[in-house]
Fold this protein.
Amino acid sequence: MGSAEANVLMFLYTNGDGVKQDDIVSGVAVSKPAISRTVVSIEKKGYVTRKHSHNNKRAYLVYMTDKARQGETFIRQQYADLVTATATGIPEEKVVEFIEIFKQVADNLDNHRKATLK
């Protein structure tokens, strides 16, 4: 499984089932075509299913399968190990500060992307 696929699954683990693909685009901060390709890929691999939204037939809602749920502990552990490895030797308060700044940067980029789409 690639990192893009794991990122989408991690988003679903965090935000639950029945998420709009557009929400994944915003949450993962990746382009709409890239998320579409990634969701199609993990759907073919049996990790998710997509269903048309009742409110908007052009929009897809993404649902995890049992296969995705069975892999949750492993993927969460991989992310935790990565965070631990990257934060080695850095005081915890600096790591927390970095994460807060990074979240703000991601929010700024998302807001800019949304503004340019209007």
The helical segments are 3-15, 21-28, 32-44, 66-70, 72-87, 92-117. Residues 92-117 form the longest helix (26 residues). The mean pLDDT is 88. The chain has two domains: 3-74, 88-118.
